[in-house]
Amino acid sequence: MPTDTNKKLALIGYGKMGRLIEQLSPQFGFDVVLRLDAPENEHGEGITAGSFNGVDVAIEFSMPETAPVNLMRLAELRVPAVTGTTGWLNRLDEVRSVVEKRQSGLVWSPNFSTGVAVFRRLTALAAELLRDETSYGAWAWEIHHDQKKDAPSGTLLHLVEAMKDAGYARAIDVGSNRAGMHPGTHEIGFDSAADTITLRHTARSREGFARGALKSAQWIIGRTGVHTFEEVLFGEGGKS
Ligand SMILES: NC(=O)c1ccc[n+]([C@@H]2O[C@H](COP(=O)([O-])OP(=O)(O)OC[C@H]3O[C@@H](n4cnc5c(N)ncnc54)[C@H](OP(=O)(O)O)[C@@H]3O)[C@@H](O)[C@H]2O)c1
Predict the structure, then answer these.
(1) What would you measure as the largest C-alpha separation in the chain, in angstroms?
(2) Which residue has a Cα nearest atom 15 of ligand 1?
């Protein structure tokens, strides 16, 4: 039930994630006051000063082609935003420059699960410990449902980047599968003649992603700049 104290939330992208976020939003003190899906928001045209009047924060889960325009329009209006859309990070710098110029706020992550944020740190630590152990080779693999549009997943690319940032400079063999209804498994492995190390994260449902996005929406209100989910979880020193 709407209350005076609840913050006003806009949802951009009203698909599987948008609907789940709406369902959980009262638990995080939000009233959903606006929903924009493809028909109402071609080229971001639904994101106007009028429609966002009184909105405290927006959560964006749409499509790789539409997210950058949506995020730049939100930044122009100085509406703090959270985006979980994957497959658009080649345009992050463009989005960042608008967010910074307008002194708006943005949290982005290809994966809003707390478990994956911890998994990424464990991956970086393993990569750092094995970076000079040339007897080990490494792989990175993921599987998702067959509707997922991007492959490899943004999360897997983020994990591989963490390995490289940790100083692992040898080849990393990257693979993906798309089948059925799978909510997402990511695996990082190191193999040598002596043994194998396997690190695996398995998502059980989409709920963890939705909760992470809602937690980030609470956090970004009143902040400026571009931030990652790791900063929300681990503090400003948790940049990725
Ligand atoms: N970061 C994370 O933790 C996480 C977790 C799950 C999913 N994701 C990512 O989040 C994105 C959405 O996932 P999903 O499972 O919710 O997908 P989905 O069910 O396909 O929903 C996407 C929605 O965006 C709508 N859309 C298309 N163009 C739009 C526009 N210009 N403005 C607003 N909405 C628009 C689509 O409408 P139409 O169907 O009418 O085109 C659809 O309803 C994907 O990139 C996915 O990889 C990230």
Answers:
(1) 64
(2) 16
